[in-house]
Design a protein that fits this description.
The chain is α/β, with parallel strands linked by helices. 17% of the residues lie in helices and 38% in strands. It contains 4 helices and 18 strands.
């Protein structure tokens, strides 16, 4: 394949100790809509897609898997070839989720499970949301012990490209958006935040108002990041997971001439061009990935 095999960040699946509380936040604050319940999973969507968020009850708050949309059948076939060549076993040789035509799942470095798929149903009806509905699911940021290893893995196996280096980590893209996965260094290994795109900065102000209406609050922002140039605001839910809403992300269209930037972790401008506060407790949040067995190879 000459095109990258991943075309978009599709969805995220979480296990939570307070399922009803998580569903309340997803529908009343985030403006998502429940699309289906299958087995233990509740599927939620922001629009026509069958789902962009999945929730299930668990004995601990954990990340179950990250969904990546393949660049069609050819992208999925190429990934199968690469996994076989590298001897990476599958968690599943079929989609993990309902509403998906074809896919597979495997475990990457430091325990993160990735579901790569094609053919998600896009048949959900229009609805009037309660809360601030995003336009799409945008990215995840992961903290790991060995960021260089995960960055190389994402480039080699999934065709991600580096947009900016930050300390030992990097922000990587799978399409024109500046980043779909951010990788930083911290322990324990965890997903630090999930991020949802909105139309503009006014939606971030409305998010703050909705949280305040329910006696809750933003923990950071709005800020404009130096990395990615997006304007963002953050709150905490789903255990200790940070939820980001953002707009106006940098987009990179000229792959031939683009040169990644480089930021020191200690430089506060990578996180905010508008403030100079220490990030402090912001970096302490996140959910560790679910431990799981891979299927035995034939």
């Amino acid at each position: 394949m000459t095109r990258p095999i991943i075309s978009a960040i599709g969805h995220v699946a979480l296990r939570v100790t307070d399922l009803e509380g998580a569903l309340w936040t997803a529908t009343n604050v985030m403006g998502l809509r429940e699309s289906e319940r299958v087995g233990e999973w509740v599927y939620l969507t922001h629009g026509a897609d069958h789902h962009s968020l999945q929730l299930a009850a668990g004995d601990a708050d954990r990340l179950d898997h990250i969904g990546l949309e393949a660049d069609g059948a050819a992208g999925l076939a190429e990934l199968r070839t690469r996994l076989e060549a590298e001897g990476i076993p599958l968690v599943s040789d079929a989609p993990l989720d309902a509403g998906i035509a074809e896919g597979l799942a495997f475990q990457g470095p430091e325990g993160f499970t990735f579901e790569v798929y094609t053919g998600m149903r896009r048949d959900q009806p229009r609805y009037a949301p309660t809360g601030i509905r995003p336009t799409r699911f945008g990215h995840v940021n992961l903290y790991v012990a060995d960021p260089a290893g995960l960055v190389v893995f994402l480039q080699r196996l999934l065709d991600f490209r580096i947009s900016d280096h930050v300390g030992a980590g990097a922000f990587l893209r799978c399409n024109a958006d500046h980043h779909g996965i951010g990788v930083g260094q911290a322990e324990p290994t965890r997903v630090h935040h999930m991020a949802w795109e909105v139309e503009g900065i006014a939606d971030l102000a409305r998010l703050g108002d909705v949280l305040d209406d329910h006696d809750r609050h933003l923990i950071w922002g709005p800020v404009r990041h130096g990395v990615g140039r997006n304007v963002a605001a953050y709150f905490v839910d789903f255990g200790s997971l940070i939820v980001e809403y953002y707009s106006d992300m940098q987009r990179i269209y000229d792959e031939a001439t683009f040169e990644p930037g480089r930021w020191e972790r200690e430089d506060p401008r990578f996180f905010s061009l508008w403030t100079r506060h220490d990030l402090g407790d912001f970096r302490e949040h996140g959910l560790q990935p679910v431990a799981r067995e891979t299927a035995a190879r034939a």
